[in-house]
Design a protein that fits this description.
five-stranded parallel β-sheet, two-stranded antiparallel ribbon, globular, binds adenosine-5'-diphosphate, binds zinc ion
């Protein structure tokens, strides 16, 4: 099963991809995570992209395509994968089949812009196990501590109001056109990303099971 998850920053892609990856036993691939790995290890590539990521602009197609091509070669992708936040523009969408093969379904998680800044600024993540939280909508039991593994939670540098606003405008300008691209191919499935997180997971799983 090869899936694509698209949606504005903060739509809940990472949160839901984690659930879907477990349910369908497929790999969860976030190009944002792959890029952050490069910046945190301060590789040559990481140093080159750090400013772009902090500004909320897109990293070049060539860089993300190379990272993706290497990632899908790993064993955990044999049964399939879910791409979280990829493709981010029409060019990436057009090139995708030549890198990973044909995609079966594209899920758009839609959330209106008004809700996005609050979601992003309140986002916290676990650097050890990847669990995602929100200070108001999905708080950990103990303030600032991961409920799964006990690690101290962190806030991403690009989750500040200014960068989030730019990421949102980049989304509308560059990424939103892929919605029509996939609609025209008959691959698009749209679900609302507003409401209870578990309820949205259920709807997603039902829709995808039905589409199999
Ligand atoms: P994305 O990967 O699309 O940027 P995330 O999954 O990281 O989004 O979610 C962004 C923030 O919003 C996180 O803090 C997450 O806990 C929170 N969140 C996710 N889904 C919901 C929801 N349905 N309602 C409220 N907050 C949510
Ligand atoms: P979110 O899910 O919260 O929108 P991501 O973690 O997916 O954020 O992405 C963080 C940053 O990584 C983006 O703002 C962008 O700079 C870069 N990035 C991630 N995926 C891509 C991609 N497919 N193409 C270009 N840049 C990307
Ligand atoms: Zn953790």
């Amino acid at each position: 099963m090869k899936l694509v998850l698209i949606g504005s920053p903060g739509a809940g892609k990472g949160t839901q991809a984690k659930v879907l990856s477990k349910h369908f036993d497929i790999a969860h691939i976030s190009t944002g995570d792959l890029l952050r790995e490069e910046t945190s290890q301060k590789t040559e590539l990481g140093l080159k992209i750090i400013d772009i990521m902090n500004s909320g602009e897109l990293v070049s197609d060539e860089i993300v395509e190379t990272l993706l091509a290497n990632r899908v070669k790993r064993d955990d992708c044999k049964k399939g994968f879910i791409l979280d936040g990829y493709p981010r523009n029409v060019k990436q969408a057009e090139n995708l089949p030549s890198i990973v093969g044909e995609i079966e379904k594209v899920v758009l998680i839609s959330v209106e812009d008004d809700l996005i800044v609050e979601r992003m600024v309140g986002r916290r993540g676990c650097p050890k196990c990847g669990q995602m939280y929100h200070i108001k909508y999905n708080p950990p039991k103990e303030d600032g501590v991961c409920g799964v593994c006990g690690e101290a939670l962190v806030q991403r540098k690009d989750d500040n109001e200014e960068t989030v606003k730019n990421r949102l405008s980049v989304y509308h300008k560059s990424t939103a056109p892929i919605i029509d691209y996939y609609k025209n191919k008959g691959l698009l499935l749209e679900i609302s990303g507003v409401g209870d997180i578990d309820e949205i997971s259920k709807q997603l799983i039902d829709a995808l099971e039905g589409a199999r």
